[in-house]
Automatic annotation (TrEMBL):
InterPro entries registered for this protein in UniProt: N_methyl_site (IPR012902), Pilin-like (IPR045584), T2SS_GspH (IPR022346), T2SS_protein-GspH (IPR002416), TypeII_GspH (IPR049875)
Protein known as: Type II secretion system protein H
Keywords: Cell inner membrane, Cell membrane, Membrane, Methylation, Transmembrane, Transmembrane helix
Domain General secretion pathway GspH: 47-164
Cross-referenced SUPFAM superfamilies: Pili subunits (SSF54523)
UniProt-listed Pfam families: GspH, N_methyl
Superkingdom, natural source: Bacteria
A single BP term in Gene Ontology: protein secretion by the type II secretion system
Ranges that cross the membrane: 12-33
Phylogenetic classification of the source organism: Bacteria, Pseudomonadati, Pseudomonadota, Gammaproteobacteria, Chromatiales
Compartment annotation: Cell inner membrane
């Protein structure tokens, strides 16, 4: 009697398993890359919403009887400022140091930048001054300097978020530059 040939195995070959693993790796890589862009949009949105929340908090503090405040904007961040008398009748604006919520803020990640328009005029912003100039004034009546603040991704300049504020103190977030 002749020996019977062995039955063919019903499993996968090593080559087939490697091909499936490579395909899954490529698909996973593509999924991660596509989610990466959504992450940048999310970061811009998060920074813009944080700015709105903090300005609104500062505005409410002023409306409740606190001292008038201002916001000094730089290319990569912003500072909340209060007016301090330095000599007889001479005042200056200094960063708020008594309130942890209103501490100076830098944009994260660092490759985001700010651009500011006040009443329709572009403002030249410094990179990181020790003592920024006040730009947006928050008054006890709830009024705010009219402004348009653009947060831009330096790697993709078309990717922006725009925060606008009007004299009535209304702050709004836009995904593109508003008309006007």
């Amino acid at each position: 009697m002749m020996p019977r040939p062995a039955k063919a195995s019903a499993g996968f070959t090593l080559f087939e398993l490697l091909a499936v693993i490579i395909i899954l790796g490529l698909l996973t890589g593509l999924a991660v890359l596509s989610v990466g862009d959504g992450g940048r949009d999310r970061q811009l949105e998060e920074q813009a919403r944080r700015f709105i929340s903090l300005v609104d908090l500062a505005r409410q503090e002023v409306m409740l009887g606190g001292p008038e405040l201002a916001v000094g904007v730089t290319r990569h961040g912003y500072h909340f400022l209060h007016e301090v008398e330095v000599e007889d009748g001479l005042t200056t604006w200094l960063p708020v140091d008594r309130d942890r919520q209103l501490r100076p803020r830098d944009l994260e990640p660092e490759d985001m930048e700010l651009a500011l328009r006040l009443e329709g005029v572009d403002v030249r912003l410094d990179y990181r001054p020790e003592q920024p100039d006040p730009h947006l004034y928050l008054y006890g009546t709830g009024e705010v300097t009219e402004f348009q603040l653009t947060l831009r991704d330096q790697r993709d300049p078309d990717r922006i978020r725009v925060v606008t504020g009007d004299m009535a103190g209304r702050l709004r977030l836009h995904t593109e530059a508003p008309d006007g």
